[in-house]
Design a protein that fits this description.
This protein has 106 residues and is mainly alpha-helical. It contains three helices and no strands. 1% of the residues are buried.
Length: 106
């Protein structure tokens, strides 16, 4: 009987030690290296505007000249947003005009 009481006490202690951090520690938000959601909404708005311009052109509501002007402007804005929010991969920095040169042995 005494062995069962000790075993139960050990199991309860282990359960309390394991459960304590899960139940009583505040949860920290997950912070990834990705751009915030607001940046994605701006991207989505520009893509929707591009889609609207395409639809208006193909349905005859927009002339070729207006279509090209609006599309060029929206594409430039989209590229600016993507470049401004894109993370720069580590180690992809420019190192001059071309690939690195091999060292000569003397």
């Amino acid at each position: 009987m005494f062995v069962f009481a000790v075993a139960a006490l050990i199991m309860l202690t282990v359960a309390a030690v394991v459960a304590y951090p899960l139940l009583f520690q505040p949860a920290e938000p997950y912070l990834s290296g990705e751009a915030p959601a607001a940046d994605f909404s701006e991207r989505d708005a520009l893509l929707d505007a591009l889609d609207d311009v395409e639809h208006a052109f193909h349905s005859g509501k927009l002339s070729q000249r207006d279509y090209e002007a609006q599309r060029g402007s929206l594409e430039a804005q989209y590229v600016g947003v993507v470049e401004a929010t894109a993370p720069v991969p580590h180690g992809n920095k420019p190192h001059g005009d071309g690939p690195p040169r091999k060292k000569r042995r003397r």
